[in-house]
Amino acid sequence: MPPNFRMDATNVEAQRIRAFCKNTIDIAAEEDYTSIIFPSSLNNDGIDWVAPVLMRSCKEWANESPYFENFAEIRILCTSHDDYEHYVNAANRMNTSKRRSKANDEYDDEMAEQAPPPTASKGRRRGEPLVPIPHEDIEHMKSNGMFLVLSAKLEPTILNLKDQEGRKRQYRMTNRSRDGRKLYFRCSRCDTLAKKCENAVRARLIICNGEIMGDEFPTHHEQCEPWTDEQLLVQQIDRSSRKTVKEGLLQPFEAYQDALTRISSVVANDSKTIELPKFPEWNQIRHQYVRIKKLTDGEGGEGEDEIPEGALDESAEIGYEDEEE
Predict the structure, then answer these.
(1) CATH superfamily to which 11-114 belongs
(2) Dihedral sign, CA of 26, 28, 34, 36?
(3) CA atoms of 176 and 148, how far apart (whole Å)
(4) Which of 74, 189, 207, 236 has its CA 20 to 30 A from that of 173?
């Protein structure tokens, strides 16, 4: 807990405390923990301030977090009976407020009976489409230099961002809230390195309403290398070309030729001096483009005899050294 947080100072400070607590639970869930214990007091603040804020944090987390179903329990370690009573009273006050809110809304029992029954899962039902990320959030991210680009699966779930030294880092979206306003990212290269060491550092980012929450420049694995402009250029032009095949706009070889033209054009018009990246030869990536075409046409990809044994799969990257997935 940052020592300069004082939840009794202003409402904004209380909101920051709640955000800190909710992010703490999310990080624990990402590390595959199913329970967490909070102390009854934070920063030596009075228990009468801490109890309602911490209880509200847990309630908001349960309503908002995509990790809710993966978590078994959240405990608060009360060291005295008085502390315990404060938390019981805080919980009772929240329940009273909820009942009062229902009364003020003139809750209709008949309408409730006609409403569809709630699903057992608080998460998204299988097959239910995701709520798009709000346009205003995307525009706000762009204004802060944050752009979502195509992943290996040709979805805009990759975040390219500069670190504090101006080097390029790439984060992949690992989860998101149901309303699309809270996005969770992890550094893709840190993730690869972490598979070789259980306790390795993995840089994480959380973006809420288009703003980074918490540390804007998280610590990366000591062996995590930044990306070069050339690597990112080749990667994204390749992926955007494959997407034109997937959408039926171009044939595989047409998309490949278009990629070569665009990469030369971008380098020629770029104000920065970067070398013309070497784009893979057609015979190196033909199987990927053809496979996408066959999947789009509903033919499947198993019958493509040009795909050599052990070829790169759909999640493989082009334009930089091969990494473990």
Answers:
(1) Leucine Aminopeptidase, subunit E, domain 1 (3.40.220.10)
(2) negative
(3) 14
(4) 74
Task: From 79, 74, 63, 83, select the one nearest 28 (Cα to Cα).
Answer: 74
The total number of residues shown for the chain amounts to: 325
How many angstroms separate the CA atoms of 300 and 291, rounded? 8
CA–CA distance, 175 with 171 (Å, rounded to integer) = 12
Q: Where in the chain is the domain with CATH 3.40.220.10?
A: 11-114
Write out pLDDT tens, residues 130-181.
678 888 998 888 888 888 999 988 999 999 998 888 889 999 999 888 888 9
pLDDT digit string, tens, across residues 25-50:
888 888 888 889 988 887 666 777 78
Question: What are the phi and psi torsion angles at 122 (to 5°)?
Answer: -80, -15
Q: In 3-state terms, the chain is what percent helix, strand and coil (to 5)?
A: 40, 15, 45
Q: Is the model's pLDDT at 52 over the cut of 50?
A: yes
Reply yes or no on whether the pLDDT at 107 is more than 70: no
Angle at 141 between CA 138 and CA 142, to 5 degrees: 90
CA-wise closest residue to 286 among 261, 305, 299, 262: 305
The two structure tokens encoding residue 19 = 């955000």
Query: Which residues 6+ apart lie within 8 Å of 109 measured at CB?
Result: none
Residue 96's nearest CA partner among 104, 76, 73 is 104
Summary mean pLDDT of the chain: 76
What is the tens place of the pLDDT at every residue in 222-266?
Answer: 899 999 888 998 999 999 999 999 999 999 999 999 999 988 888
Q: Is the pLDDT of residue 13 over 80?
A: no
SS3 call for 197? coil
Supply the pTM of this predicted model.
0.56
Q: CA 226, CA 169: separation in Å to the nearest integer?
A: 5
